[in-house]
Amino acid sequence: MTQASFPATRLRRTRAHGWSRTMHRETVLTPADLIWPLFVTSGTGVEEPIASLPGVSRWSVDGIAKRAREAVNLGIPCIALFPNTPANLRSEDANEALHSDNLMCRAVRTVRDACGDDIGILTDVALDPYTSHGQDGLLDARGYVTNDDTVAVLVDQAINQAEAGADIIAPSDMMDGRVRAIRMALEMNDHPNVQIMAYAAKYASAFYGPFRVAVGSGGLLKGDKKSYQMDPANADEALREIAMDIAEGADSVMVKPGLAYLDIIYRARQRFEVPVFAYQVSGEYALIEAGVAAGIGDRDALVMEKLIAFKRAGCSGILTYFAPLAARLLRG
Ligand SMILES: NCc1[nH]cc(CCC(=O)O)c1CC(=O)O
Ligand SMILES: [Mg+2]
């Protein structure tokens, strides 16, 4: 047989056996790559299934502590907390965000009591779960979300969360200059080791709908968030946002939503030596669940394929509502 009659290289050769596929795998996903977002609600012993997010519930703080323990047992290193503030505590000025006994702070303390230092607690900094208008910041007389006045409140909100025991402050508001302001306040208030994970490139996305139902801001929001969240058409601008947040003292940055923005994750990793996280947001979760319900495929396989894509693009980790499912699958 002449040499020309067979391929010089057979890429299928290393795919022929399971052991070989394992050996040649370029990217791995582990439970340590996962951050589990959890929704907090009032009361004790309360679980409220969220219709917009099938399989996800709001939990009262005791339930949140149980979920945190579950995360520890599954090898998930960090949870992210989001409060469903009671309607009567929402206001124009989001004052509830600054109270040391608000839902968020109570949840942080309860988790810390239950799990000690075994789990990282990430708290979201933005005003939308606390405002009567559902915007992430304060409005001026014409309804514009003000930047610098909002940053002043975000700083107090961040310190309030750090005092309660948060490990990672995650500003999701997209105001300019907030990372520097929060970093300075953390340093000056004796929290030098509290991290900042900046939602650096956060897009004005149609994929946040189910989340807004979960934190009760969806029905309140009039208009959109396009004057502060990014235009989905832009990528160079995302790199500027990320560069600014690094310069202002962010320990890590986030790209949000996830799958539609893998190019941003990839470019950020090429450009900067900084940990990049992705948020697989509520609409991405709900679409997979809707697809599974419609019979388009197997949930486990769909979820794992999407999560490995984030790692392949260069992510250090992923915020995902699928965290407990994925961790269980990974542990076999
Ligand atoms: N600042 C609020 C915030 N923090 C995280 C999300 C979305 C998360 C998700 O959809 O899962 C949002 C929604 C928004 O900006 O309207
Ligand atoms: Mg910015």
UniProtKB/TrEMBL annotation:
Q: Which UniProt keywords apply?
A: Heme biosynthesis, Lyase, Magnesium, Metal-binding, Porphyrin biosynthesis
Gene name of this polypeptide:
hemB
Among InterPro entries, the record links this protein to: ALAD, ALAD_AS, Aldolase_TIM
Q: What Pfam families does the database record attribute to this sequence? A: ALAD (PF00490)
What's a Gene Ontology MF term here?
Answer: zinc ion binding
Q: Which domain of life is it from?
A: Bacteria
CDD domains listed in its UniProt record: ALAD_PBGS_aspartate_rich
Among its keywords, does the record have Ligase?
A: no
Organism of derivation: Qipengyuania marisflavi
What is this protein's record name?
Delta-aminolevulinic acid dehydratase
Q: Which GO terms describe its cellular component?
A: cytosol
Catalytic activity line of the entry? 2 5-aminolevulinate = porphobilinogen + 2 H2O + H(+)
Which residues of this protein are catalytic? Answer: 202 (schiff-base intermediate with substrate), 256 (schiff-base intermediate with substrate)
Known EC number(s)? 4.2.1.24
- Record family assignment: Belongs to the ALAD family.
Q: Which SUPFAM superfamilies match?
A: Aldolase (SSF51569)
Write out the GO biological process terms. protoporphyrinogen IX biosynthetic process
**Residues annotated for Mg(2+) binding in this entry:** 241
The pathway noted for it is: Porphyrin-containing compound metabolism; protoporphyrin-IX biosynthesis; coproporphyrinogen-III from 5-aminolevulinate: step 1/4
Quaternary state and interactors: Homooctamer.
